[in-house]
Amino acid sequence: MPRFAANLSMLYQELPFLERFGAAAADGFEGVECLFPYDHAPELLAAQLSRHNLQQVLFNAPPGNWANGEKGLACLPGRQAEFDAGIDKALAYAQALRCPRVHVMAGIMPEQVAADTLRSTYVANLRKAARRARSYGVTLLIEPLNARDNPKYLVSRQDDAHALVTEIGEDNVAVQMDLYHCQIVEGDVAMKIRRWLPTGRVAHFQIAGVPERHEPDIGELNYAYLLAVIDEVAAQCGWQGWVGCEYRPARGAVPDGTRAGLGWRAGCAIR
């Protein structure tokens, strides 16, 4: 089975953030990811990773004003200086945490700006950021997000994300394939995995149940089957990435609420 990484922004919410590393390790995870690490000094996070023998496999670049609904700056004209500063901050954290992947959120499309302008701004910003990231050994990721949860987000489809990777033209830009979003937008998830994983442009997967974004064994997707598809295709094409567990435990932020919901991993070799 693929290697699973615990998303510490969504799992173990019954614990303070710095205590979630130990909880994930105790539950057999060897990798972790999170949305935004910036509330904590990088040396504190690095110490937790070292203490619990964990790998930081992914986090997001600063998204702008998250509390006010911003979900990235990359496509927004006039925000380039703020975007560049955010990339610098993300790369500093990536270096401290030895994290090889950073998701760069595209942003919400303002109605008053032409779609072509938003796309060209996004491509230019990602291309420039990728060239800076290369010296850190970091790959920047594009993740399509569904419009139900993220209205007017710039990128929502797998084919568009892959087209953007090609257009940007930098070898350290890749796709983050979240099967929760993929199911909501497109469906036919197994065939999407078979179509896109062999291209070499998928660097990371994420999973959650659909539609409520709870544990993978809750909802309409058969993850036992989908994870086997990933395993099969990965063996054929040599993919060795991680699958991020980016879901909200159905039991909520109660003691051992995350641990009690990990039964979906039964029969999966955690490695």
Give the fraction of residues assigned to helices: 25-40%
Question: Reading side by side through the largest sheet, how are the strands ordered?
Answer: 1-2-3-4-5-6-7-8
Bin the strand percentage.
5-15%
Tell the overall outline: globular
Query: How would you classify the helix and strand content by structural class?
Result: alpha/beta
From the N-terminal CA to the C-terminal CA, the straight-line distance is 8 Å
In CATH, what is the class? Alpha Beta
Name of the CATH architecture:
Alpha-Beta Barrel
Structure description:
This protein has helices spanning 17-26, 42-51, 80-97, 115-134, 158-168, 179-185, 189-196, 223-237, 257-260, and strands at 3-7, 31-33, 55-60, 101-103, 139-142, 173-178, 202-207, 242-245. It has 271 residues and is α/β, with parallel strands linked by helices. It has an eight-stranded parallel β-barrel with strand order 1-2-3-4-5-6-7-8, surrounded by five helices.
Describe the structure in brief:
The chain is α/β, with parallel strands linked by helices and 271 residues long. The chain has helices at residues 17-26, 42-51, 80-97, 115-134, 158-168, 179-185, 189-196, 223-237, 257-260, and strands spanning 3-7, 31-33, 55-60, 101-103, 139-142, 173-178, 202-207, 242-245.
